[in-house]
Amino acid sequence: MRKGVHLLFDAIRILQKEPIEFWFVGQAQVDVPAELRADPRVKWFDAVPRDSVAEYYRNADVFIFPTLSDGFGLTQLEAQSWKLPVIASRYCGSVVQDQINGVLLDEVSGSAIADTLMSLCRSPQRLVQMSSRSEVSEEFSLRSLASSLLTL
């Protein structure tokens, strides 16, 4: 729940008539409502081996991370390394540059997620532009991490 998955569930319900597919990868650690389990737009993948993760990033258009409590979500960096724009809450570190390589949600709610997705659907070029600017910044590179560790 602290990852905001229930808010994604709300967004799916709001967008029930829209041609948007949602993929959930990883073990479900919450009870998933029956109507969402049965929704053909919602795909459920259990935990996948590390060497298979790339397939899911490669086949996605956007990564949604509506966490309510993460100090820093490494999955954002993974998504950016695959050129995915990230829709994220403001509770997960300074990775997303709002409207540059993704969208930072001012309000973390199902309606805010739904509104953001609809906005991107109406402006696919904006999604393409965000994707072209999505990359792991030097601040989060292995070189920067190594330098920080050596300084310690």
Describe, in short, the structure shown:
The chain has 152 residues and is an alpha/beta fold. Helix content is 40%, strand content 11%.
What does the model show?
By secondary structure, the chain is of the alpha/beta class. The protein has a single domain, classed as Rossmann fold (3-Layer(aba) Sandwich), CATH 3.40.50. The chain has 7 helices and 5 strands, in the order αβαβαβαββααα. The chain has helices at 5-14, 34-38, 53-58, 74-81, 110-122, 124-132, 142-151, and strands spanning 22-25, 42-45, 63-65, 86-88, 102-104. The strands form 2 sheets. It has a 3-stranded parallel sheet with strand order 3-4-5. A two-stranded parallel sheet has the order 1-2. Helix 1 (5-14) crosses helix 5 (110-122). It is globular and about 50 Å long. The termini are far apart.
Q: Main traits of this protein?
A:
3-stranded parallel beta sheet; Rossmann fold; single chain; 11% strand; 152 residues; two-stranded parallel sheet; 5 strands
Q: Proportion of β residues?
A: 5-15%
**Structural class per helix/strand content?**
alpha/beta
Helix residue percentage: 40-55%
Number of domains: 1
The CATH architecture can be given as 3-Layer(aba) Sandwich
**Main beta-sheet strand count, sense and barrel state:** 3 strands, parallel
What strand line-up does the widest sheet have?
3-4-5
CATH topology assignment? Rossmann fold
Average of pLDDT: 87
Provide the gyration radius in Å. Answer: 16 Å
What's the CATH first level? Answer: Alpha Beta
Global shape: globular
Structure annotation, total helices:
7
Low-confidence stretches: none
Query: What name goes with the CATH superfamily?
Result: Glycogen Phosphorylase B
Distance between the termini: 35 Å
Find the count of extended strands (DSSP E, 2+ residues): 5
What is the succession of H and E elements? HEHEHEHEEHHH
